Amino acid sequence: MCNAGGGQLGRMLAQSAALLTIPISILDVGHSPAKQVVHPAPSPSASSSQAQPQAAAATTAQGHIDGPFTSPAHILALARQCDVLTVEIEHVDVSALEAAQRETGVAVHPAPSTIRIIQDKYAQKLHLIAHGVPVAESAAVERTVQAVEGVCAAFGTPLMLKSRTLAYDGRGNFVLRSAGQAQEALTALGDRPLYAERWAAFTQEIAVMVVRSLSGEVVSYPAVQTVHKDSVCHLVFAPLRSADPKVGERARRVAEDAVRTFEGAGVFGVEMFLMPDGEILVNEIAPRPHNSGHYTIEACNTSQYTNHLLAILGLPLGSPALKVPSAAMLNILGLSSSFSEIRQLVDAALGVEGATVHLYGKAESRKGRKMGHITVVGQSDAEVRARLRPLLAALPPDRQNDAYAPPAQQPGFSSPHPLVGIIMGSDSDLPTMLPAARILDHFALPYELTIVSAHRTAERMAAYARGAASRGLRVVIAGAGGAAHLPGMVAAMTPLPVVGVPVRGSALDGVDSMWSIVQMPRGVPVATVAINNSTNAALLAIRIIGAGMPSLLQKMEKYMRDMEVEVMGKVAKLEEVGWEKYEVKKH
Amino acid sequence: MCNAGGGQLGRMLAQSAALLTIPISILDVGHSPAKQVVHPAPSPSASSSQAQPQAAAATTAQGHIDGPFTSPAHILALARQCDVLTVEIEHVDVSALEAAQRETGVAVHPAPSTIRIIQDKYAQKLHLIAHGVPVAESAAVERTVQAVEGVCAAFGTPLMLKSRTLAYDGRGNFVLRSAGQAQEALTALGDRPLYAERWAAFTQEIAVMVVRSLSGEVVSYPAVQTVHKDSVCHLVFAPLRSADPKVGERARRVAEDAVRTFEGAGVFGVEMFLMPDGEILVNEIAPRPHNSGHYTIEACNTSQYTNHLLAILGLPLGSPALKVPSAAMLNILGLSSSFSEIRQLVDAALGVEGATVHLYGKAESRKGRKMGHITVVGQSDAEVRARLRPLLAALPPDRQNDAYAPPAQQPGFSSPHPLVGIIMGSDSDLPTMLPAARILDHFALPYELTIVSAHRTAERMAAYARGAASRGLRVVIAGAGGAAHLPGMVAAMTPLPVVGVPVRGSALDGVDSMWSIVQMPRGVPVATVAINNSTNAALLAIRIIGAGMPSLLQKMEKYMRDMEVEVMGKVAKLEEVGWEKYEVKKH
Fold first, then answer.
1. Which of A360, B12, B121, B301 could be bridged to A8 by S-S, CB 3.0 to 4.6 A?
2. Would you list the DSSP string of A520-555?
């Protein structure tokens, strides 16, 4: 197999190919990142491994080629020595690919026709529109001040003016705040063909990696949140969390549908905007492994690179499912020509549990260059964010942002990444529910605490219950008195375990609440604890989350041992002072 | 950094080094597995990456060296071009390492003194005994029939006769069934010095990878179960499961203590026997990455290879914690000189969710040679075993073994890898508890069902509760009638969530059981469901496990939608036939 382009994507592709001993040749200038991890055998005959999987057995890639991946002659030379040719960058000479394909019979993935459409961003937009894929309204714009002013009038400002070609990582984009910037924009964007996009005032950026097999079968990775800074990918969080339980699935459907409209096999990165009304617009598609999919190496059953290989070699696609509960990816960007800031960040990462550093072996650093990335995995969003904190702190101040790795939960306020939701029907239940909060504080398990009334805020309750799982909650503790419908009604609208705390009212000593909470009909369970015993509700929540998080279970074991020690202390006290003088402390 | 030995361990070490762009040179004959994934820069000056972490910044490894790793001259040449030298095999010339260290000042890890002790298996045993590490009784044996017969008389038979040197993967081991085999054993073991080990009739083989830092700090990976076939590692299961809740921790302590007795940094593989009385004996120690630690690449926060690099470069050690709930490793052994059986196994693995194939790039296959391995990860032991099944099925019949990947749970019988334990105080509770089993069958969630009585089998109850978590259970459903102590008492002896089902007795309609189960004191919660409603107990168990297993939560969502559809069907029926003719089906 051969790859045109020897940067970090080619490097990670080659690292995946090594696992299956798929021979690979790289075309690029010099000892580029990808070439460093593929050492072709000295004699050509020895380079074809016999142990590779059946479908790829005929592959016979040889040494690397030193030359630009834009050169038709070098592309042809590369094609001559392999059976399958792929690219790690869409800014290639498509005609050269087609010529090489004709001349050598090499398979090229993604299909040159796909690359041709995608490398012209406006052609890509028109293609998507023609196939019914939702995108921001776009129009081709001539390179004149009048034309730019015209589109400002038509679309309003702000407005995104973009180069149609050779644009990536924010290069070739200009944000027009007003029509008066028309000349400035034209100057900044140089001599490339342009188009304009109506401003998408998104609430969040989403990305989905989609793999397309030779036969057109399509599978997608989980939707992730992407965070850009200066138009370059800064952070990725997987999986996407949202109070809208369907947004992740919707994003995957949109991305899969978009990729189905293209030809050829391989992995595609689909970047999308989530709009305030919940609509999803496709922003851009990359016909190759993508920065927003780096996290898959450590976090998914099959990495985007392995799946790209499987796809283009006609092998069965691998499972894209997450194998860890939560993951984040932080790009390591050059800040200057010096490597010292990069070293600082890497040194910080080496001290972070669950962090994996990927350096790309680029010989030179420069401001904004992608030099590596760090993947962080953890057992919860809160854990991943906490692990991310020292990494963001090692960045220059303008790249830090507490919003993405907020400090630990503050006493009396909800965590932004809770695992447990404590809700109660009325503020009068607060004293009864506070002990639950104290227990979760003790275990340092992130939670939120709020008022949700089944009878007085029925809509809020429904929205809370429906969005609980997709926001990342794992348990809901619901306290309610009297008729006490809250726990059961929440349980009816979430698949999560709901722990019900019967709150003692004035008339029936909480027995009414108890029966109302515990006697649920078949089909919808509520885990009921003793009357007013929110302590036990929280301890149950910890056991529930601990069932899938062994480290938490160990903390629970310690808690139980401590309880035993406490009682043993009372045993000793009783023996020491005798029961006549023993003072019973009120719980 | 340099590595003597270019086999699969060196290859995986080099693959980890690439992530941190740590320059690495390999000494071995020819284009060995490790050399294939490290392509040194054409000019020496360009080979030192500037982006590597601080402590390793001075490293300046250059090209590979072609020669035997047993050759002093080649070892010296290797040492000359690097700052840190490590080995992937303990059968090296220790004096040559020491000479190279003296002459060049290169750091060698593991310490030559450690390699010297470990490469002589009897010296290793004596060293461990001297440091109080538990091992099987051993004795040096002269190479005479009389001496062998003498040790048979002393230790009894069967007995393990071993070469002291150059023994691994079962080579150099002879199992003496009787003293009559003395001559046969001497012939088989050739001309090496020998020693004998008293037969260890272990119940299980355990391994722990231990990492030792430059300063002597020691961290250990989770204990795993290893399965050998013909004395070669066949399967590894992580983490170790046991009804003894402390055995995993005990194994780690024994392994850590053993590694503390050696000098130098790096990762050590400690193989142990678990004896019937719970004692743990150290069998052998390898001063390097080990086959039993391959699983760490996909399953742990930090792989054994990365941790070996971090240790020998003086960088902070990485977290050894599992990042997935369960993992297994299957070695790919050559079966003949043909690659076709290997291809078959790899093809099978490519269709298995959560499986990652590692091929080593060895040019030739032969019977018993380690050609690669497959790691399988999953959300539970049952899932991992199910995924392993098609892989074991692709092996020749004599390497298949249903015990390690048993077929799916049979109706009416407990799963060997349950996530839920259904227990009841009396067989008279069975009709009440059966609906729970039906629900778990419906969700295909593995469970066990048995009788555990708090009052009549108190010891059994305590053992059951104490071993529940370490056996891999995540939820216990306990049904009990009358005084109904079972759920609460189990909850007092396990950190797992316990779901209590009050069983209706003859006198008080189950209200007695309900109060007894739900009114637990502060500190020990029981998740109580409605009287006799074991259906809801199982649904709650699914929600609890689903809290940490998103795919299960999706099944629960579907179940809830199906319930809704069922009721909507009744709505339609009621409208269609009218309520005068509507027949109410008994639940």
1. A360
2. PPTT---EE--TT-HHHHHHHHHHHHHTT-HHHHHH
Residue A374, chain B, CB below 8 Å: the answer is no
Cβ-nearest to B357 among A19, A324, A587? A19
B158-190 pLDDT, tens digit each:
999 999 988 776 678 899 999 999 999 999 988
- In the chain, the amino acid numbered A579 is W
Query: Per CATH, which fold does A420-547 belong to?
Result: Rossmann fold (3.40.50)
- pTM of the full predicted structure? 0.95
CATH number of A2-40+58-109: 3.40.50.20
Query: Can you tell me which residue has the tokens 């009784």?
Result: B137
Model pLDDT, residue B51: 45
Digit-coded pLDDT (tens) for A486-540: 999 999 999 999 999 999 987 889 999 999 999 999 999 999 999 999 999 999 9
Residue A173 phi, psi dihedral angles, 5° rounding? -110, 140
- Which residue from B minimizes the CA distance to A551? B321
- List chain A domain ranges: 2-40+58-109, 137-198, 205-404, 420-547
Residue B44: predicted pLDDT: 46
Chain B residues with CB under 8 Å of A20 CB are: 346, 357, 359
Encode pLDDT of B373-405 as tens digits. 999 999 999 999 999 999 999 998 877 777 898
Nearest to A266, CA basis, from A221, A214, A315, A301: A214
| B chain contacts of residue A329, beta-carbon cutoff 8 Å | none
| Two tokens, residue A116 | 């041709």
Superfamily (CATH H level) for A205-404 = ATP-grasp fold, B domain (3.30.470.20)
Structure tokens at A478: 């619901």
**A481 close to A504: Cβ distance less than 8 angstroms:** yes
Could you say which of A49, A302, A533 has the minimum Cβ distance to residue B522?
Answer: A533
Instruction: For residue range A408-463, list pLDDT tens digits in order.
Output: 889 999 999 999 999 999 999 999 999 999 999 999 999 999 999 999 999 999 99
Residue of A nearest to B499 (CA): A527
Q: Which tokens go with B566?
A: 């069922």
What does residue B394 show for φ and ψ, rounded to 5 degrees?
-85, 0
In order along chain B (587 residues), what is the average pLDDT of each group of 10 residues?
86 96 94 93 51 43 86 93 92 93 95 95 96 95 94 94 82 89 91 92 97 96 95 95 96 98 96 97 97 98 98 97 98 94 96 98 94 98 96 86 85 96 96 98 97 96 98 97 95 98 90 95 97 98 97 97 97 96 83
CB pairs under 8 A between A and B: 294
Mutate to test the interface with B, among A371, A528, A585 (most CBs of B within 10 A): A528
Question: Which CATH number does the domain A137-198 belong to among 3.10.20.30, 3.30.1490.190, 3.40.50.2300, 3.30.1490.20?
Answer: 3.30.1490.20
Q: Which residue among A37, A322, A526 places its CB closest to the CB of B37? A: A37
